[in-house]
Amino acid sequence: FYSEVEKMGGKRWDTSSLIRRLRDELDLVRHYLAIMQARWGERLRYTLELDPALDARTLPPGLLLTLVENAIEHGLAAKLDGGNLTLRTCPTANGWQVQVQDDGAGLPAGWQEGVGLANLRQRLQHRFGAAAELRLQSRPAGGCQAELLINETLA
């Protein structure tokens, strides 16, 4: 993002109106995971299951990074031995989806969405309207799953 700021002369801009290719967002996530892997060592284990056919799809910037950061900071960080994170992109019957799963702490009882996820939902609504949906749920085996669904027939 910093190079984009420099290209724009350092001016402030509204990122909700910008879009980035999924491929570029995934590159940012890879860099973030590499940094976190260096910090956490063997405590952070991750798998990327990415469908290259979706690389040209677009998203508002930072959405995937927010979901991955949340999985690590709110899910895996609470476990002394760390845990596993899976990021998956795949086509669906009507579009495509992104899943971020962790085997961390899961959603606590009485959990309420914070500012980061509320902003993420707002940015999705701005970009895709009713064609985008974000689901968060605890996983039966433990941890949490965030699922971003884009219905291209509605977009």
DSSP E strands, number? 7
Give the averaged pLDDT, no decimals. Answer: 88
Counting H and I runs of at least 4 residues, what is the number of helices? Answer: 4
Supply Rg.
16 Å
The side-by-side strand order for the widest beta sheet comes to: 2-4-5-7-6
Low-confidence stretches: 1-17
Quickly give the structural class. alpha+beta
Give the N-to-C terminal Cα separation.
26 Å
Tell the overall outline. Answer: globular
Can you write the helix and strand succession as a string? HEHEEHEEHEE
Largest sheet: 5 strands, mixed
Percent helix among the residues?
Answer: 25-40%
Roughly what fraction of the amino acids lie in strands? 25-35%
